[in-house]
Each structure stands twice: as structure tokens, then as C-alpha cells.
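Quick entry, no commentary yet.
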Amino acid sequence: MKLSTILLQVVFGTIVLANSEKSKITPEKIQQQWATLVAPYVTRCLCESGANRALAEMWSQNGQITTDPCLSCYILCIHRAVGYYDVRNELTVDVILAAGIVVPESVVRYCVPKAANITDLCLKSFTYSNCVLTKVYEMKP
């Protein structure tokens, strides 16, 4: 599996890594942690959102994201399931960091504001994930 593929699977969410721990975390560990975390929600979120399984798998396995509205709602469902949204249905840095999942804090702090003013929650999750995906690509060695 290519390093870029593994890193892109991080896009489902955000594991906050302390600077001292970054060298200990490998893409494989991140992938395993994320897969374990979201596994209980995949089927439910596919059914609730009506997302195409192939598109959801392309997003999770290859980091390919499309503007399909059902895929955006699938991403929202996953984000809610892992605790990214606060009680006001907002993506907030503190709530995402408290969830303790996948990607450096700097990426979370950069990407949350990109989705802040979007009222459509599916589009908000899509925008956040797309931003994280872009930043993960930039992190590639």
C-alpha cells in the first residue's frame, strides 16, 4: 500500500498527535486506529446517508473525494459518530481535539475555520474533510 494512500485514510478524522509522539506514530498505526474507530459506524452511515459504497471506499481507501451530496452526508455521519460536532452542531477545534483522533493539531486549527460559516452540515463536513485531505497531501515527505 502506498504511503500516500495510508496517509489519506487519515482524512476521515483527526488523531491529535503531541509533537513528542509524532515520530512514534506511523501511517500504518494511524490507519489501524482510524479503521477500528469508524468500523462500528460505516454500515449505519452508508444506510442513513444513501451514499454509494464505492464512493465511500474511494474516499476512505484512496483519499478521493467527490462532490456527491450523499457522500458528504456520509462524512457528516462519520464525523458525528466519532464526536467531532459539539452540541450546537458545529465543528470546533476543541471538540475535535478532545475526540483524540488522526492528524496534527495544526491541520485541525487550519481546517475548522474553512468550514465555519457553512450552514449545510453535510457540506460543512465535506469542506472540512477536503481541507484535511489537502493538508495531508502537503505533509507527504
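second:
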Amino acid sequence: MTAQIPEIIYIDGKRRSLLSCPSIPKGHPSIRRLTADELEERGVLLSTALWREYIGTWKIKDEHLLLVSLKGRFVLIRKGPILADWFSGVITVARGKCLQYIHAGFGSIYEQYEYIAIENGIVVDSFVVDNAERPVLR
């Protein structure tokens, strides 16, 4: 599998790579899937580096996971961020430098990972794993 382009997430005002993909709900009134003609008109290129066909920009503000924008196959049809109340799960955020690039999915190894548990769009827990001292295979 080709390495995937990460989602974008802002935490405490800092842009980070989101190495997991919170779902985009089907039938949400503020999200629309573009047709093939609309993709062509807008010059949207799809790639094996983007199997999900979109890049989401997210942020965590006041312990809420918010969807800020979408580019690619989906678009937001209203202004302003949307509370991701449809999402429950754990998201993985890269922190620090990439220690080892791996050309598969989100397999690259970073200095740190932040794991954030979300329930119905609300942050319920988080912790950081430090890989800085971890040996890297070459």
C-alpha cells in the first residue's frame, strides 16, 4: 500500500499530522459528496496516496473534536466547524520528527505519538508515547 497523506489537526494552535481518519458520516446535512463531473470541474485529482478520497482538517477545542474543512471527494456546505458527534474512537497524532519513513499507509515512525480517545466528539482521555530513544531499523 502507498503511504497515505495524513489528515490535518490543530491542537493548542499547532498544526499536526493526524495518522488516523475519523469517519465522514453518510447523509450529514452539512457534508456533500461531489459527483464525478464536479470533481473534474474543480480539478480534484484522486491518488493511491489518498484512498479515502479526501483530506479533512480538524481541531480540538475545549475538549471537542471539530471538523473544520474537507478537500477532495467531500465538501462542507456550511461555514464554520462542525462538532464530530458521530465519531467515537481513538485518533493518533504524530508529534516531532519523522524517525523512519515507511512507504505503507500511516506506517512511518515519529518521535512521539499522541493517542486521543473520543466519545461522540468529546475528548475523554489522551496520552503520549515517546519513541525518541527507540532504535530504528535501516
